[in-house]
Structure formats: structure tokens, C-alpha cells
Amino acid sequence: MNKTIRLIFAAIIFCMVCGCTSKLVRIDSKPAFADIRINNEYIGKTPMYHRFYDKWYPWPMKKTDDYLVQAQLPGYEPEVQIFQETPVRADISYVPDEIFFKMHPLEPEADME
Q: What's the CATH number where 56 sits?
């Protein structure tokens, strides 16, 4: 019985250490309704919330959880924000609580006539 309890306790600790963390982040833009892509995958339109995950990989794999967040709106220049994981981080704190895009209108093209 005592051995079983120790084994269960060890399994719980292992899952806690090796699990992944997550963070719910608000994504917004001005003007609203910009298309949002994260790592080239369409997520939705602003304003919205998205859950970012920080995954654990077994040694010796050294994958990073970098995020490329893009906002696109017709008639406006596309905007990009990059959040890179640093090796020291053990959590998702490198992604801010809110990501905001201030969209800039496209410059009208001058006629060459």
C-alpha cells in the first residue's frame, strides 16, 4: 500500500513538472475585425481571446514555442508581432496579456501618367 501511494505521488509530481502551461491573451486592433493568424494559421477576427500554450519536450529535443502573430485588414498595411521564447523561461510569460495592433491605411498609389 505504501509503495502504491509513493508511486501515485511520483506520477502526480511528474505530470505537474512535465505538463504544459497556458495563457489566455486578448487580441485587439484598431480598427476592429482584422484577420488574425498565429504561425500562419487563421485564428479569427479581432476583438478576440486566444489561448497560447507552452509545451514541454523531452530531452534532447530543443523545440521553441515562438509565436508570429499577424493582423490583416483590407485597405490597411499588414501588421506583425513576434514573441520568442527564451531558453531560461519555463512558462508562457513572454507573451503579453494583451496584443494590440494599430492598423495603418495603405498609401494610395500615385498615377504614373
A: 2.60.40
Per the structure, how many domains does the chain have?
1
Nearest to 101 by CA among 25, 23, 32: 32
Q: Does 10 fall in a domain? A: no
Pairing of strands 35-38, 41-45: antiparallel
**Contact assessment for residue 47 and residue 53, using Cβ atoms and an 8 Å cutoff:** no
Give 81 or 3, the one with higher predicted confidence: 81
Residue 5 counted as domain residue:
no
The pLDDT score that the predictor gives to residue 69 is 95
Nearest CA to 38 out of 70, 11, 2, 5 is that of 70
67 lies in some domain: yes
Range of the domain at 27: 20-102
Pair 67, 38: CB distance under 8 Å: yes
Per the document, the length of the chain is 113
Cα three-residue angle 9-14-17, rounded to 5 degrees:
125
Stated pTM of the model:
0.69
